[in-house]
Amino acid sequence: MGLTVLTDPPTQYHAGFTLKGTGEAGELALTTPWGNQLALVKWQPERVTLDYEGKRYVLRSLADLTQRLSGAALPVAELLDALNGGEPVVDGWLLRRESPTRLFWLRQQPLPRAELRVVLEDTP
């Protein structure tokens, strides 16, 4: 997964990920290319926890979390729908399915613009 926030200069984030759950409740583990866990995010209605660098942060929503971490609130529930084959429509975002295993999201509004690229792999 790669996220680029188109500020001046652009800010880029890259990580592997393992995702379980739905937009309502789930878990996302972010990993380095070597497989080390960077962060663990768990969510349920009205509560999101982030475990990162030995600390736990608690927020009210995934949008709040992604806004604080990257400067761009990401439509996480809709992203999960797209990962499961859906074609969600999100105001200000353009979704392009580049292949069955590659998704590209472009946030046009609100600023700053952002690009999110997701590559899916089969897991054993």
Beta content: over 45%
Order of neighbouring strands in the sheet with most strands:
2-1-10-9-8
Helix content range = 10-25%
Mean pLDDT: 88
User: How many strand elements?
Assistant: 10
Give the low-pLDDT segments: none
CATH fold topology: outer membrane lipoprotein receptor (LolB), chain A
Alpha-beta classification: mainly beta
Tally of separate helices: 2
Rg, rounded, reads 14 Å
Itemize the secondary structure elements and their pairings.
Layout: E1 2-5, E2 11-14, E3 16-21, E4 26-31, E5 37-44, E6 47-52, E7 55-59, H1 62-70, H2 76-83, E8 93-99, E9 102-107, E10 114-119
Antiparallel strand pairs: 1-2, 1-10, 3-4, 4-5, 5-6, 6-7, 8-9, 9-10
Features:
124 residues, mainly beta, outer membrane lipoprotein receptor (LolB), chain A, five-stranded antiparallel β-sheet
Polypeptide structure, described:
There is one protein chain. This protein is mainly β and 124 residues long. The protein has one domain (2-119): Clam (outer membrane lipoprotein receptor (LolB), chain A), CATH 2.50.20.10. 14% of the residues lie in helices and 47% in strands. The protein has helices spanning 62-70, 76-83, and strands at residues 2-5, 11-14, 16-21, 26-31, 37-44, 47-52, 55-59, 93-99, 102-107, 114-119. A 5-stranded antiparallel β-sheet has the order 2-1-10-9-8, with no helix packed on it. A 5-stranded antiparallel β-sheet has the order 3-4-5-6-7, covered by helices on one side. Strand 8 (93-99) and strand 9 (102-107) form a beta hairpin. The mean pLDDT is 88.
